[in-house]
Design a protein that fits this description.
By secondary structure, the protein is an alpha+beta fold. It has helices spanning 3-7, 9-24, 40-47, 52-58, 100-106, 156-161, 163-169, 171-193, 234-242, 280-299, 322-330, 340-350, 360-371, 425-440, 451-459, 471-479; strands at residues 61-73, 77-84, 87-94, 114-123, 129-140, 197-198, 204-205, 216-220, 225-229, 247-255, 267-276, 303-306, 309-312, 319-321, 380-386, 402-410, 413-420, 464-470. It has two domains: 8-146, Nucleic acid-binding proteins (OB fold (Dihydrolipoamide Acetyltransferase, E2P)), CATH 2.40.50; 168-318 and 378-486, BirA Bifunctional Protein, domain 2, CATH 3.30.930. The protein contains 16 helices and 18 strands. Helix 8 (171-193) crosses helix 10, helix 8 crosses helix 16 (471-479) and helix 9 (234-242) packs parallel to helix 15. The radius of gyration is 29 Å and the shape is elongated. The model is unreliable at 1-5 (pLDDT under 50).
């Protein structure tokens, strides 16, 4: 269905006719030479507190531009509310003060049109700062009526699909994305001040690695070879550690060929960072301090609302072992999760879907998601994960069946994942071989063999710890948003039929 039919051919035709009439009168459509002297928010900030008398005496002449959001006609005069990215200002258009050309243009305007206005500032009897319009330009015509705030944008999917309308009609949506942007800027400043180097690594890779996820595949025509959109930058960032960049970070996109949910979008933004001569224990403390500093800067406090909860991000965060969290949440003894057979039996008894799951760690992961994750509301550190779900992590010295790894959960979702890196090339090769066996058994998320990465390790990588943080999920937490699609400007959606 075309947009013209969806919004109504009649409105489109009527507004197009108005533009055509103006063109026939000699007005050039879509002029681009108008330059505002102030943003609307600046006018309110600079002159909003001035009295009527002060404005009359000063006779400030200004130029302002924006989209018409409201219109009130009173015979020979009218008020328009125009909006730009900084806020709104009122225009007063009267036949006894505006130029004839301005009146002619005004008669062809609709709500939604973008205009430029020039005139003196004054205040109405109700005290509203306004521009007494002398000159008026139509800068861009809107051929569709704007949706009503509470009716036309009630459809959540329509808000995501036409984000430009969502931003126009809901100021709080724009505020949310400003807050997301400030959060990312704050993170960058924090890492820069701690001596980390920001880098960029390939988005298209010959081999996909760095996470357990299915990739998107593309094709390079000239080289006639398939490439993968990266699922993580990890293996390239660790190559940089081998090369002597001992504190590096990257904030960029990853792509994972997975389902869509309130916590998942196939295109996601991640922060990954690596530090030589550090352990996963060091990164727990670093993460506590960094998140608290960023949230305090962006939100003004380390305690923030999320749904019906108040989340306190200031550390230290409570710590639990992976198996301990399963035992606590299920009421079972550790024996229920000691191996693949016992864990599978528990999952089957509880009706937890495990179709296609072929490893011990994946069974535990399914149980963890079903029984534990939703209940971790305050930031909580979960440590010591099974080896087979952590092919790039260093084995624990205390229990070699597990690795030196932690994840942080908050508001019922995973926010970050970190570990002491496996820098033994011989052990890493064995892990890759085990992943290939899992892949052959049907696990499409298992790692491929990466000989070039193994060669990098053979040159020697210092003891290192690394971490990945989901920027989109962190933005959900910081902005009190229930869905990841609320914090992504243009989330992936099915095409309209």
């Amino acid at each position: 269905m075309s947009s013209k039919i969806e919004f109504g051919q009649e409105q489109f035709a009527q507004r197009k006719e108005k533009l055509d009439r103006l063109t026939s009168l000699g007005y050039r459509p879509y002029p681009n030479q108008f330059r505002p002297t102030h943003l609307n928010g600046e006018l309110q900030r600079i002159f909003g507190a001035a009295s009527r008398e002060e404005l009359e005496q000063s006779s400030h002449a200004v130029k302002a531009a924006g989209r018409i959001m409201a219109r009130r006609d009173f015979g020979k005069a009218a008020f328009l509310q125009i909006q730009d990215g900084s806020g709104r200002i009122q225009l007063y258009v009267a036949q006894n003060s505006a130029e004839p050309k301005a009146i002619e243009i005004f008669e062809h305007l609709d709500i939604g049109d973008i205009v430029g206005a020039e005139g003196g500032l004054f205040k109405t009897k109700t005290g509203e700062l306004s521009i007494n319009v002398k000159k008026l330009l139509l800068l861009s015509k809107s051929f569709y009526p704007l949706p009503e705030k509470f009716h036309g944008l009630a459809d959540v999917e329509l808000r995501y699909r036409r984000r430009y309308l969502d931003l126009l009609m809901n100021a709080e949506v724009g505020d949310l994305f400003w807050k997301r942007s400030r959060m990312i800027s704050s993170i960058r400043r924090y890492f820069d001040e701690k001596g980390f180097l920001e880098v960029e690594t390939p988005m298209m890779q010959l081999l996909c690695g760095g996470a357990l996820a299915r990739p998107f595949v593309t094709h390079h025509n000239v080289q006639d070879m398939d490439l993968y959109l990266r699922i993580a930058p990890e293996l390239y960032l660790k190559r940089l550690v081998v090369g002597g960049f001992e504190k590096v970070y990257e904030i960029n996109r990853n792509f994972r060929n997975e389902g869509i949910s309130t916590q998942h979008n196939p295109e996601l933004t991640m922060l990954e960072f690596y530090q030589a001569y550090a352990t996963y224990e060091d990164l727990i403390r670093f993460s506590e301090e960094m998140i608290a500093a960023v949230v305090k800067e962006v939100c003004g406090s380390t305690k923030i609302p999320y749904g019906e909860h108040q989340i306190e991000v200031r550390g230290p965060w409570p710590r639990k072992s992976y198996i301990g969290a399963l035992v606590e949440a299920t009421g079972q003894k550790e024996g229920a999760f000691k191996d693949f057979k016992s864990a599978s039996a528990y999952a089957e008894k509880e009706g937890i879907p495990t179709k296609g799951v072929v490893s011990y760690g994946k069974i535990l992961d399914a149980i963890f998601k079903a029984k534990v994750e939703d209940h971790l509301i305050q930031p909580t550190v979960i440590c010591k994960f099974p080896v087979d779900t952590s092919p790039l992590s260093r084995r624990s010295d205390e229990d070699p069946a597990f690795v030196d790894r932690f994840e942080v959960f908050a508001a019922g979702m995973e926010i970050m994942n970190a570990f002491s890196e496996l820098n033994d090339p011989f052990e890493q090769r064995k892990r890759f071989e085990a992943q290939l066996a899992s892949r052959a058994a049907g696990d499409l998320e298992a790692h491929q063999m990466d000989e070039d990465y193994l060669m990098a390790l053979e040159y020697g990588m210092p003891p290192t710890a690394g971490e990945g943080i989901g920027i989109d999920r962190l933005a959900m937490l910081v902005t009190n948003s229930p869905s990841i699609r609320d914090v992504i400007l243009f989330p992936l959606l099915r095409p309209q039929e």
